[in-house]
Every structure is written in C-alpha cells, then in structure tokens.
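An instance follows:
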Amino acid sequence: MKNKPTFLKFVLNDKRHLVKYIIVLIAIIISCFTTPIIIDSSQDDTSIFAIIIALFTQYGFIIGLSLQPWLIYKKLIKMNYWK
C-alpha cells in the first residue's frame, strides 16, 4: 500500500472528511450568532434546562463532527492500514 499520510493529507484527499470540516466552519460561524440569542432568551420565561440543552446540542454537533475524521484516522493507524 501507500505510505502513511499525515492527518491533513488524509482529510484533504477524502472529500467526505473535507466536507465535514467545511460544515464545522459554517456551524462555528452560526453558533457565534445564535449563542447570544439563546442566552438572551433566558430573560424571558424560558427554563434554564431548555437553554442548557440548546447550547449542549449546538456545541456537541460541532465537536462530534470535527472529531470523527480524527478518530477514523487514529483507528486506521492502529490497524496498520497503510502497511
């Protein structure tokens, strides 16, 4: 097989992983705009539980999507995929 690529080459060669990181960048930009809106809604009659869940899902989506290619890369290294 080929030599083991670096993580950056691994992401750039596979379009699925590249699209995931583009979506992560878009989600980070969107979260910068929506976080103040979510926090400002706490002044209304919104429960704190709903605000915590909204922030948890928003940032959990970003963390999960950005870690998935890294975990796939680490698993392939452990399996000696490129040797």
In short: The chain has one domain: 11-78. The mean pLDDT is 85. The chain has three helices and no strands.
